[in-house]
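Progress note, project year one: complex with arginine.
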Amino acid sequence: MSNKMWGGRFSSAPDAIMEEINASIGFDQRLYAQDIAGSKAHAAMLGAQGIVAAQDAEAIARGLDTILSEIEAGTFAFRRELEDIHMNVESRLAELVGAPAGRLHTARSRNDQVATDFRLYVRDTVDALDAQLADLQRALAQKALAHAATVMPGFTHLQTAQPVTFGHHLMAYVEMVGRDRGRFADARKRLNECPLGAAALAGTSFPIDRDATATALGFDRPTANSLDAVSDRDFVMETLAAASICAIHLSRFAEEVVIWTSPSFALVKLSDAFTTGSSIMPQKRNPDAAELVRAKAGRIVGALTAILVVMKGLPLAYAKDMQEDKEGTFDAFSALSLVIAATAGMVRDLEPDAKRMEKAAGQGYSTATDLADWLVRALDMPFREAHHVTGRIVALAAERGIPLHKVPLADLRQVEPRIGEDVFSVLSVARSVRSRVSYGGTAPARVRAQAKRWLKRLGDTPA
Ligand code: ARG
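Model obtained:
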């Protein structure tokens, strides 16, 4: 039997492999709620415009409500020979309400229908992700506030560079996640236009009201060009690009957790709740959650790459290639949702080892810059020269295997006779971070203010 939705000019059924490659119901059934909402808005508009009789529009609406509850109850039978969610719903509607069902597809095509459904889906997803990202920011800022003065080694090239505070480090991620939310919000603004009514590609001869359907579905306005409306997947590419950048941020954080919790560093502890054991090595505590957060970035970026390559070279308007926009997107967004939740969980769970952190912060002559800055301030030395003098002192300390603050004053004076006793006051890591009071700097007072500002913005009253 040929397809009952479009089989008029067909005399026989598709090859089994044709059906297999063509059908999307296996994955696009996830769009059922959006599809039904779109159809309800369309039917109501057709009724209001007198394009279909009022009682037909009502019958369609009732039938669609029944279908929604059937799908939600798990009693709806999805059929692959009906290809996709759109035709599965419409076919069931015909069973439920009879003839009026055949009027629903007036002034509409699956091309504008799927574009509408998918925009609604992506919009809902972006809203849910934004709430999760806000929660992650809260977790980070709360932990940062608790550790605004906990000194840790700051790294460049993963070499100990200058002491920073753990709170400052965590607040860096609050900023990154803030930009992620900004990217999603920005993409959401652009995607919030309604393609419904573009029909197959050229618009329609029926007197439809596109503003009415756009408003009913919470869109800001209808899309302005029917060809663009059915062939545009920018909203997928943009949101997946935002998702990819976000996933990369979380992956960087995850990598830090892996490093910090490694016994060779041992700067941070994760509790049993976020650690796994080894089946052979009884001593092991593995940061699997962090590793998987790191790895999921791969599949999210993969989904972005896939849609970019699918769209590249597609002539206007719709082509079936575009059906490939969905699976990767569904997968990427659920992966992102999971990694955000796992990251927030780890942030709340992890505790820094303040003693080890402070000790590590002082290693590798991390306060050398403080010494150079002291020479500039106290002796009015040009910074370049101060850098050189400090380098000689570091070399001397390294030769003896002692930290900077253990170099006797007499030896410091061998290098620079004008150095006084008060130089020692700047050489501790705590003093170092306390002195970094420039805007955006690591001084505990700055970090506290930053964390409080964010928590207020996030609707959280700091403890
Ligand atoms: N399942 C299709 C998709 O996801 C719906 C649109 C089909 N349109 C068409 N002209 N065959 O893209």
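The longest helix spans residues 110-146.
The pocket of arginine is lined by residues 24, 28, 84, 110-111, 114, 318, 320, 322-323 (CB under 6 Å).
No further modelling is planned for this target in the current period.
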